[in-house]
């Protein structure tokens, strides 16, 4: 393992268990990488240097005594919407936030698996946008091209993993916020089934559309982190049956019926798939066909699914804003979204929640004919830093939908999706594709992603091979 770049999560855990390296050494290297990169990439909001070193020393004592846990001594990062005891949870907002008393359930489970939490990664304000910028912390930059965003809202986690600062990280996904930055930084991004990884202390984050997920360079690493973080708090409203994600990675997916869906779901704003992204997704479709799968163009019957998303998303923003200690410091777009959420929080929200059952039935029927949907993750490569930062709320929504119209329906459905790298647009900017499945289909999606990875070896390419600041 080289000190200038993190080894993968699986390899790191194996090296620790085998006594090849100490957790203290790994955490020291991780902290050095973070410090060296922070002035450029700005991936972290909180770095837990002293606490992480103490936790690493404790892990080393356990390892020396023969204790073995899946991630014992492995440094990882989490997004700054997750509670880590003793640290603030600002969720991209300005102001000095107080430290929280307890770990959130996902973090508690990572610790139970032995992980060392080295820090909390940057996210845009309340996770609303597909960029990670704001007055609270500045701009987080894409390791593949520092003039471009890594995406959002889990942009800090994606930048940290893509640059090799940490082997893997947790993010959250409310409208593609794991999958979008994964696609724009050449990573695996897993949006699991709703409830797979607890969002406690909020039983439902953003009215159930937001879930916690994993970002890593390989499918096996993303699955290992998913297995470590998965599980529920006693009061979670959604408790899906357990899956063994790591075992699924080692299985052949069999021959599958794959629907290639290039048409964006209906929104009130026009969205067009950019030719350079379309070409990369079509190449993936050809690769899948070459692996023996049946691939044909077909679009899920989304209908007016967007009408159910807006009340849930804006009501969720209103809930977070109500808890914000410094509401006057919030972005005007956040305050406007919260105002809309309060207006829609009654009958429209109840209707949107009821519609989910109908959508499950209608879109679920589509999976009688297909096993998996292959779709673009975004319609465009990553935009430049600042492209959306100063826009009005309406203009931000238009730009956001134009760039990212594909991911959010699976948040309404609550079903799993996995971003896989699809290659690069001209200029070296990464783009991705989604593998989407019905309820509880993480094992199938991960098995298929692993089959693709074995052929395409996307994890062998690092940002250092790309142009430092490619043109727009």
In short:
By secondary structure, the chain is α/β, with parallel strands linked by helices.
Could you give the topology of this structure?
Layout: H1 9-17, H2 23-38, E1 44-47, H3 49-64, E2 75-79, H4 105-112, E3 116-121, E4 133-134, E5 138-139, H5 155-162, E6 168-173, H6 179-185, E7 188-191, E8 211-216, H7 219-229, H8 245-249, E9 257-260, H9 275-290, E10 294-297, H10 306-323, H11 332-344, H12 347-366, E11 372-376, H13 393-403, H14 409-413, E12 417-425, E13 429-436, H15 442-456
Parallel strand pairs: 2-3, 2-6, 9-10, 9-11
Antiparallel strand pairs: 1-3, 4-5, 6-8, 7-8, 7-12, 11-13, 12-13
Helix pairs in contact: 2-3, 10-11, 10-12
Family: Belongs to the amidase family.
GO molecular function: amidase activity
InterPro entries: Amidase (IPR000120), Amidase_CS (IPR020556), Amidase_dom (IPR023631), AS_sf (IPR036928)
What this model shows, in words?
- This is Amidase.
- Belongs to the amidase family.
- Keywords: Hydrolase.
- By secondary structure, the protein is an alpha/beta fold.
- It has helices at residues 9-17, 23-38, 49-64, 105-112, 155-162, 179-185, 219-229, 245-249, 275-290, 306-323, 332-344, 347-366, 393-403, 409-413, 442-456, and strands at residues 44-47, 75-79, 116-121, 133-134, 138-139, 168-173, 188-191, 211-216, 257-260, 294-297, 372-376, 417-425, 429-436.
- The strands form two sheets. An eleven-stranded mixed β-sheet has the order 1-3-2-6-8-7-12-13-11-9-10, with helices on both faces. Strands 4-5 form a two-stranded antiparallel sheet.
- α10 packs across α12.
- It starts with 8 loop residues before the first helix and ends in a 16-residue tail after the last helix.
- Residues 465-472 have low confidence and may be disordered.
């Amino acid at each position: 393992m080289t000190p200038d770049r993190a080894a993968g999560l699986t390899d790191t855990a194996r090296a620790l268990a085998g006594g090849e390296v100490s957790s203290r050494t790994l955490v020291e290297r991780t902290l050095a990488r973070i410090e060296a990169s922070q002035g450029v990439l700005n991936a972290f909001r909180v770095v837990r240097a002293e606490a992480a070193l103490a936790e690493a020393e404790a892990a080393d004592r356990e390892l020396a005594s023969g204790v073995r846990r899946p991630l014992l001594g492995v440094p990882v990062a989490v997004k700054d919407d997750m509670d880590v005891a003793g640290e603030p949870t600002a969720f991209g907002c300005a102001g000095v936030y107080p430290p929280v008393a307890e770990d959130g359930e996902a973090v508690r489970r990572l610790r139970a698996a032995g992980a060392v939490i080295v820090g909390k990664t940057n996210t845009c304000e309340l996770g609303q946008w597909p960029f990670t910028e704001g007055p609270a912390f500045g701009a987080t930059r894409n390791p593949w091209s520092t003039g471009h965003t890594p995406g959002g809202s889990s942009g800090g986690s994606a930048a940290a993993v893509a640059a090799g600062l940490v082997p893997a990280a947790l993010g959250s996904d409310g409208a593609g916020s794991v999958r979008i930055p994964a696609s724009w930084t050449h990573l695996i991004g897993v949006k699991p089934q709703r409830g797979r990884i607890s969002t406690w202390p909020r039983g439902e984050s953003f009215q159930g559309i937001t879930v916690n997920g994993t970002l890593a360079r390989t499918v096996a690493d993303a699955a290992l982190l998913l297995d470590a973080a998965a599980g529920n708090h006693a009061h979670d409203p959604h408790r899906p049956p357990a899956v063994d994600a790591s075992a699924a990675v080692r299985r052949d997916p069999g021959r599958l019926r794959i629907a290639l869906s290039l048409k964006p779901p209906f929104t009130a704003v026009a969205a067009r798939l950019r030719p350079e992204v379309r070409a990369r997704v079509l190449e993936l479709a050809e690769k899948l066909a070459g692996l023996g799968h049946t691939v044909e163009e077909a679009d899920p019957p989304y209908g007016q699914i967007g009408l159910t998303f807006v009340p849930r998303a804006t009501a969720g923003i209103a809930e977070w804003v109500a808890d914000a200690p410094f509401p006057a410091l919030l972005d005007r777009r956040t305050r406007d979204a919260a105002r809309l959420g309060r207006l829609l929080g009654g009958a429209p929200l109840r209707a949107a929640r009821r519609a989910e059952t109908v959508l499950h039935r209608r879109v679920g029927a589509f999976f009688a004919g297909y096993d998996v949907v292959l779709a673009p993750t975004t319609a465009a490569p990553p935009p430049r830093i600042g492209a959306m930062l100063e826009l009005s709320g309406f203009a931000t929504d238009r730009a956001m939908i134009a760039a990212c119209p594909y991911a959010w329906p699976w948040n309404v459905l609550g079903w799993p999706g996995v971003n896989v790298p699809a290659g690069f647009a001209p200029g070296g900017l990464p783009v991705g594709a989604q593998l989407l499945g019905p309820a509880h289909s993480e094992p199938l999606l991960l098995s298929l992603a692993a089959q693709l990875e074995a052929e395409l070896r996307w994890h062998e390419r690092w940002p250092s091979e790309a142009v430092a600041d490619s043109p727009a």
